[in-house]
Write a structure and sequence with these properties.
Elements (H helix, E strand, L loop, with lengths): L3 H36 L15 H11 L10 H17 L9 E4 L2 E4 L8 H9 L2 H11 L3 H32 L4 H7 L3 E2 L3 E2 L2 H4 L1 H14 L11 H4 L9 H26 L12 E4 L3 E4 L2 H27 L7 H28 L4
Length: 359
Amino acid sequence: MVDYITVAIYTVMSIVVFMLILTTVAFLTLAERRISAFMQDRLGPNRVGPWGLFQPVADGIKFIMKEDITPLEANKLLYTLAPIATIIPAMLTFAVVPFGHDLFLHGRVINLQIANLNVGILYVFAIASMGIFGIIIGGWASNNKYSLLGGLRSASQFISYEISMGLAVIGILMVYGSLKLNDIALYQGSLWFNAIPKWGILVQPLGFIIFLVSVFAETNRVPFDLPEAESELVGGYHTEYSSMKFAFFFMGEYANMITASALIATLYFGGWQIPYLHNIGFIIPKFGIVHMQQWLVAILEVLSFVIKVGFFLFFFLWVRWTLPRFRFDQLTALGWKVLIPLGILNIVITGALIMLRII
């Protein structure tokens, strides 16, 4: 029998998460400008609202008001569908990411996760890999040779680094023995020697480095933003796009950053886990040690997850304004000649350590 209350709860949760991602995408554009300004010793946006806080609103109005131009020789159907095919997978991927453990509310157990799938990590790879179709289709449908080259570069880059990313994740799956992201986060709450959290970065340091580098390539961020490469390809796959169609490509990139940061936090930094939180209590006269209420623990765990995701979003922005862009041959060589062999080596080392019962 259908539990309509549970359906309503998860529907509301989905809408709230979707709106939060869109809001974060908007303010990431402001954060990108402010952080780049700080690193380059200039002011950045400071005219639209206090401290420039309304700049994302102004940008949104600007995109809506701009003329929407479609090239005469473009394939109009695919040209229109490409931006949509880019942003939708970026939003759907977040559905299996747990942003908290459980919340007990009026006798109900609410998973702070939109979809707790048994094949969560496989879902992430399956949906995320579909985002490349929007970029390839957009580059081809524009009927522009620079856009086409940008789309082809994207295909080559995504395929190269998805392999190394998958190899890095295999090490995590070997250690924690589950495809469910919530289980992986839960297992990281255990302690070594009753003192050290068993976070993914400690049990898979090499896998973390491989995954981190691969994520930068998968999200088209500097130093791996070759599909755009303004100096060589004008604007890459979205050269012919304007108005809200261009904005969808733009939003898709930032949404991918959010999902990537959430995955890094979940797989390697304990997800929503706060070390030793359940051992914390308060001494109250006549009652002794009183532990925190479950709802307060749930709120703190969600805040922990948000802080971790926020740190890696800042890291994305920091790297962009620090490192130069690679050449394309350097990018492919790093993926095929360095990261993939290291990923295979990491699996072998992980298997040996598991057999020796070290991890």
